[in-house]
Amino acid sequence: MTYPYLCTTAIERCPPDADLFFNLGMVYLRDRRRDLALEMFRQGLSVDRAHTELLQTLDRLRPRRSPVFPFLERGHPVNIYGGLFRSRVTRLWTAGDPTAGISPDL
Description:
By secondary structure, this protein is mainly α.
């Protein structure tokens, strides 16, 4: 018996459980079947939206953004600090209303 078979059987026989989808997704990742792993992680989140391991794993699997300055190496300090700045600005901008804290009479 293979691990994917065992995990799939457990998912079919047990009530929906995010841990089972997480385990099957990890098995697929180890088998280098990223597309199936992502599908299992998404199904697990449909069962439990706050499952921390699923959220962390999906965050790690998210594709990297291109360097801020593509003519420099990714590890160049300017790209590193530029990426940190871009990330923080993007996070602040998308966190809520970008006009929060600005006086309406300006």
